[in-house]
Amino acid sequence: MDIWIIRNGEKVGPIHDYELRRKIEAREVDGDIPAWHDGLDTWRPLREIALFKDDFNWVHLDDLDAVPAVEEEAQVLPGSRRPPPLPSVPVYGRRFWARWLDLQVYTALWWLCMWGGGRNIESVMNNGWILVAQLVPWFILESILIHRYGTTPGKWLLGLRVTNADGTPLNLTVATIRSFRVLVGGIGFGWSFLPLFCQAFSLITAKRLGTPLWDHAGGHRVHASPLVGWRIIVVIFTFFFAVQLQMAVITPTVLKSDVLKKVMESFPLIKEELEKNPPWHLPERS
N or C of the chain: less Cβ packing under 10 Å? Predict the structure, then answer.
């Protein structure tokens, strides 16, 4: 019989039952690892599957209290040939930082293009539709990346991948609808304090539904693989570099604004420090 197991957040299989028995005997496989075979209704701990119950008799008597009791036999469903979707694992923190890493990197490149193209940064910043002009192209690009690769740069660095409930890739139309839902309901087009409200609301609903609204509505799943140290270091460096690059482009305009000048008049020490050590910025383009 062919068996599927879950390791590091990914489905592994099919593995023949005699090969899995060999791994159990060699203690390469733990009895609590989720497993499935044709006919089961859901993933079950390996030790709870009737086929392998007797293979865990090597557990020491001192460890018997740690072995979970088998409350009931797994329900057998005829005609099931594919393993069910992976169990959901909440990774809200990772998803949050992956989203904003993507946005910060994209926004930094967008402002760099504005500067490189000789655009008047002050007039661009004063445009009321600036956030829409910034964000809509990114979410179009995100739709293509999710459709083609199942991930984005930020999600890839943080070990996240988006699929349909059955593990298949999203088609372009579905990926576009998902990205539009995130643009509107996830970050509120980036307008003022609306993203804070949207993010808080998304977290509350995600905890109630087990997944954010845009994935719940579309029946999508986000798979998370274990993080490694170098990825976390790259995420931190990339995030702060992207923020610094944005500030380098817009700082000259912000420092020249009348509002900031009035504020600085109330804080002479800060004004003096800025005059002595002005923040780094890119040279103005004519």
Answer: C
